[in-house]
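Hi U.,

Before I forget, here's the chain from the pilot set. I'm dumping it here mostly so it's searchable later in email.
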Amino acid sequence: MSYPQDDVVALRRQGFRLTPQRLLTLEVIKDSAEHLSAEAIYVQVAARYPLINVATIYRNLQWLHDTGLIRKIDTGCGRLLWEHAGTPHHHHLICQGCDTVQEIDNHVIECLSDHVRDHYGFEVNLDHLAIFGRCAACQSRSSDVSTPE
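Structure:
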């Protein structure tokens, strides 16, 4: 097993207990190129550690989130998704027509946060923002349907 060493060292310095289940959960998330549901994480961890149960995965996800090593993402699909906190911070555009999810750079949200602070005196705390709407393809399809021939 190749655990995320930087994370392991940081956790040990903070005095946290590093169980194989926690390390495997973190490794699965860190090695994934996509956002993962708890169920998908469970399947991958259980393949290498068959004694684990899904409740342990949920507890470990909350613990890893509380320690700042992973981020939770709510894309409105009815379940949380997870990603490693070491990935560049980003947000999501979610199409309500076709359910595609597109990442949006954090810079856009920083500009919004600055505007809200400057104009309303309100300090925004946006760990994750999901913006719902319709993608260009869905907009194009609906305009094609409504155009009389």
